[in-house]
Structure formats: structure tokens, C-alpha cells
């Protein structure tokens, strides 16, 4: 045990002192936050370039139907042929030309063609399509001669939102949110997949490097190969847990700042909206408006749903499945690393190892949609896929007997795989000059001594 702890300590200290580890650990939360937030922020920015759109209406039914906006100016051309404008858009000062023709199969729905010298932006397309959609829909409804049509259309506009509550057997109600649960399941599963794949590959590369440099021969002279393999695997597992802990702390800090800013902006917007609503209305209507606004848009509902998650079970389950799953796959990666002399020789041998991981990610998508379905159930029981798929199901709630069965099979499989990997490791770590296959490695398991 002393030798294992020494190797664990050496592996741990060597990894955490590297600049790549420090930079990755500290900057990864910022990178993922930028990936999530920055595109949404940039998409929300308004385009300030004024674009002039020429419109030629050959039907005569949509004159002045498309209004101009602050940055999109619509110019209707009554006496100018489309061909003349189409070939000289830039010279005429137009961003694009919209030609409205009559469709052969439908008199109500026109045939729209937008000509431009470069790909038109999405906001221009949406402005044209949304405006004409409403115009055509209104005209079709007016053909039915309905009185007060505009008022009816305004009254029938409805925004339905479902508030979800979890009810325990004791009748206790807790705020829930399906999107929160799905997001948590996705993060846990994908984090498990990435850490196992990245750290497992690093273990394999480390074994190959030590074997190529003949450093392993010096170490094996004083430490048994089995203890050496277990020490390296536990060292990398410790590094991974430390990295995940730092990520969680930084992510929670960043999320807290972001949520506070969001809540401040939301509260200000709600107050302004309620002040406008309160003018000209009685107190009962204002109270109804306040209640509806708080129920639908208060970020506290999101936070309450997040806080009501069974975090002791989720955290405990993540630590267990991460450690057992990581050690299971790390042992296989270490066995492969001991059997080869360069990284290029590992492609054929690592395919059977990475295949269950890839399959788990595919099943994860189905598990998020249907966590109690047969596909998610069986893959959460199979030991080689349960570390990822069971983490997908865990936030949704898993029966105790399924957790016990999955954990038991995973532990049993772990000991079997570590025993087999140790047999391969002790032989392969000292063999050189030969390319090995899985068939050859299976023979090493029966070697004695």
C-alpha cells in the first residue's frame, strides 16, 4: 500500500504542477461560459446598418404591405422593371430587390423572390416573411366577414406556461423544472464522458512514454507492476476530481454573478411594466398582473427548482460512478499502453474501449427524453455504459433497486477488469520490438509468475 501511495503522490504532483493543467483548470469555466453566453449576447445585438430594400409588386395586392423599420427601409417601385434594378443593385443604392409574383397554385399566397449581391441577413428575411404572413392571414380571415375581427384576434392571443411540481409520497410539494433537470443530466453525463476519455488517454500516453524511455524498468525493480498501475490510475483519478471540484466552484461563482445581474434587470423591468399597467386600472387588476408576472418570469422559480434537486444523491452518485467508471476504463487504457511502444500503435486496440463510451453518449440523448425507457434502463445497468447513462437518469429519479443493481454490477466488473488489466500490464510493460493484438494480449492473462 505504501508503494501505491508513493506512485499516486508522484503522479498527482507531476500533473498539477504542469502549466497546461493550471491553465485548463482555471480557464475552462470561462471558456464554456463564453461559448454559452457570447453567441446569445451577440445574437441579441441589433444590426445598426441601414439597408434599403426595393420592392416590385407585380400582383398589385401588396403595395405598402411591408413597413419600414429603423434599420430596414422599404422602397416600392411602381414604374421600374425588376430586370433593370436587379442587375444594378449596388449602383442604385439597394441592399436587395424583392419581387412579388402571383403563384400558379394559389392566388392568396404570392411567389416571393429576393435578389441580392450577397447572402441576405436573417433579420431582413424574417421581417419580410413575418409581415406578409400576418397580412395574408388577416386578409383570409376577413373573407369570412367576421365583425370586430381585429379585437377578436387580439383577445385570442394566448401564452400558456406550465408550472411543474414534484409531489412526494408524503404529499410534500417541491418546485421543479424539466429544463433544469435535463441540463443537469446532460452536464453530468458529458463531463463524465470527457474526463474518462481525456484522462484515460493521458494514462495510456504516460505508460507508453515511461516504457519508451525505459523508466519503467527502474520503477518495476522496486515496485510490482500491479501496484504501479493502480498508483498511476488513482493518481490520475485524484487529478480529475480536483479539476472537477475547481470547475464546480468557479462555475457556481460565475453563475451566481450572472443570476444576480439577471434578477436585477428582471426586477427593474417588472417594476416599469407594473407602473404602466397600474395607470388606468383598479387595484384588483394590478394585483392579478403582479401575481401573473411573478409566477411566469421570476428567476426565483428557476432557483427553487435547482435547489430542490436531490443534490446529496446526485453528488454521491456522481462521485461513485465517476470513480468506478474512471478506474474501469483507466485500467483498460493502461493495459493498452503497456502493450505498445508508440501512440500510433494504439488506434486498433483502443477502438473496443472507446466504442462503449461513444454508444453511451448516443443513448444519453434518448435517456434525457425518456429516462425510464427500456433503452436508458438497460444501458444504465450494463457496467461499461452505466457510468454515463445512469448519471443521465439520476437527476430525474431512479428506483433504489435499479441503483443497487447497477452499482453492484459495476463494482464486480471493475475488479474483474482490473485483475485482467494487471495481468496484461505486468507482461506488456517489459516487452519490446513487437506489435501486439488483442488475441496476443489475451494469452498474457494465463501467464504465471
- Major pleated sheet: 4 strands, mixed
- Strand proportion, as a percent range, falls in 5-15%
Number of strands: 6
Q: Shape from CA axes?
A: elongated
Number of helices: 17
Cα-atom Rg, whole angstroms?
32 Å
**Strand order within the widest sheet?**
2-1-3-4
- Quaternary structure: single chain
Number of domains: 2
What structural class results from the helix and strand content?
A: alpha/beta
Strand and helix order: HHEEHHEEHHEEHHHHHHHHHHH
Terminal CA distance reads 20 Å
Element layout with pairings:
Layout: H1 2-16, H2 19-44, E1 51-57, E2 72-76, H3 82-86, H4 89-92, E3 96-102, E4 110-115, H5 122-142, H6 149-156, E5 164-167, E6 173-176, H7 178-212, H8 215-220, H9 225-278, H10 283-297, H11 299-307, H12 311-339, H13 347-369, H14 374-381, H15 386-393, H16 400-428, H17 438-445
Helix pairs in contact: 1-9, 2-9, 7-9, 7-12, 7-13, 7-15, 9-10, 9-12, 12-15, 12-16, 13-14, 13-15, 14-15, 16-17
Question: Could you explain the architecture of this structure?
Answer:
Residues 284-298 have low confidence and may be disordered. By secondary structure, this protein is α/β, with parallel strands linked by helices. A hairpin with a 5-residue loop joins strand 5 and strand 6 (173-176). It has helices at 2-16, 19-44, 82-86, 89-92, 122-142, 149-156, 178-212, 215-220, 225-278, 283-297, 299-307, 311-339, 347-369, 374-381, 386-393, 400-428, 438-445, and strands at 51-57, 72-76, 96-102, 110-115, 164-167, 173-176. The protein has 17 helices and six strands. It has two domains: 51-156, 3-Layer(aba) Sandwich (D-Maltodextrin-Binding Protein, domain 2); 185-445, no CATH class. The chain has a four-stranded mixed β-sheet. A two-stranded antiparallel sheet has the order 5-6. 25% of the residues are buried.
Amino acid at each position: 500500500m505504501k508503494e501505491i501511495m508513493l506512485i499516486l503522490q508522484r503522479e498527482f504532483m507531476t500533473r498539477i504542477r504542469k502549466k497546461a493543467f493550471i491553465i485548463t483548470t482555471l480557464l475552462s469555466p470561462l471558456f464554456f461560459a463564453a461559448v454559452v453566453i457570447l453567441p446569445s449576447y451577440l445574437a441579441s445585438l441589433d444590426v445598426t446598418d441601414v439597408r434599403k430594400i426595393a420592392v416590385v409588386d407585380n400582383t398589385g395586392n401588396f403595395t405598402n404591405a411591408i413597413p419600414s423599420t429603423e434599420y430596414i427601409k422599404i422602397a416600392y417601385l411602381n414604374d421600374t422593371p425588376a430586370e433593370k434594378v436587379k442587375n444594378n443593385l449596388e449602383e442604385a443604392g439597394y441592399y436587395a430587390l424583392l419581387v412579388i409574383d402571383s403563384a400558379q397554385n394559389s392566388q392568396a399566397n404570392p411567389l416571393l423572390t429576393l435578389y441580392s449581391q450577397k447572402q441576405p441577413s436573417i433579420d431582413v428575411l424574417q421581417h419580410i416573411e413575418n409581415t406578409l404572413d400576418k397580412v395574408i392571414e388577416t386578409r383570409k380571415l376577413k373573407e369570412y366577414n367576421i365583425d370586430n375581427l381585429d379585437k377578436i384576434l387580439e383577445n385570442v392571443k394566448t401564452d400558456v406556461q406550465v408550472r411543474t411540481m414534484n409531489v412526494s409520497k408524503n404529499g410534500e410539494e417541491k418546485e421543479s423544472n424539466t429544463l433544469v433537470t435535463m441540463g443537469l443530466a446532460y452536464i453530468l453525463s458529458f463531463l463524465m464522458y470527457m474526463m474518462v476519455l481525456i484522462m484515460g488517454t493521458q494514462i495510456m500516453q504516460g505508460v507508453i512514454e515511461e516504457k519508451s524511455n525505459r523508466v519503467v524498468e527502474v520503477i518495476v525493480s522496486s515496485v510490482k507492476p500491479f501496484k504501479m498501475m493502480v498508483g498511476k490510475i488513482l493518481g490520475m483519478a485524484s487529478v480529475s476530481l480536483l479539476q472537477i471540484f475547481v470547475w464546480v466552484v468557479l462555475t457556481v461563482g460565475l453563475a451566481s454573478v450572472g443570476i444576480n445581474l439577471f434578477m436585477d434587470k428582471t426586477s427593474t423591468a417588472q417594476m416599469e411594466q407594473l407602473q404602466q399597467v397600474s395607470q388606468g386600472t383598479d387595484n384588483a387588476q394590478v394585483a392579478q398582473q403582479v401575481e401573473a408576472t411573478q409566477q411566469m418570469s421570476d428567476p426565483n422559480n428557476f432557483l427553487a427548482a435547482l435547489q430542490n434537486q436531490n443534490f446529496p444523491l446526485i453528488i454521491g452518485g456522481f462521485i461513485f460512478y465517476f470513480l468506478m467508471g474512471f478506474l474501469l476504463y483507466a485500467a483498460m487504457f493502461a493495459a493498452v499502453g503497456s502493450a505498445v511502444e508508440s501512440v500510433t500503435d494504439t488506434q486498433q486496440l483502443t477502438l473496443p474501449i472507446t466504442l462503449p463510451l461513444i454508444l453511451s453518449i448516443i443513448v444519453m440523448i434518448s435517456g434525457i427524453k425518456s429516462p425510464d425507457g427500456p433503452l436508458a434502463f438497460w444501458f444504465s445497468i450494463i457496467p461499461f455504459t452505466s457510468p454515463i447513462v445512469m448519471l443521465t437518469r439520476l437527476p430525474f429519479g431512479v428506483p433504489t433497486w435499479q441503483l443497487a443493481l447497477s452499482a453492484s454490477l459495476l463494482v464486480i466488473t471493475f475488479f474483474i477488469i482490473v485483475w485482467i488489466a494487471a495481468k496484461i500490464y505486468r507482461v506488456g510493460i517489459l516487452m519490446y520490438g513487437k506489435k501486439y493484438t488483442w488475441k496476443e494480449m489475451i494469452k498474457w492473462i494465463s501467464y504465471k509468475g
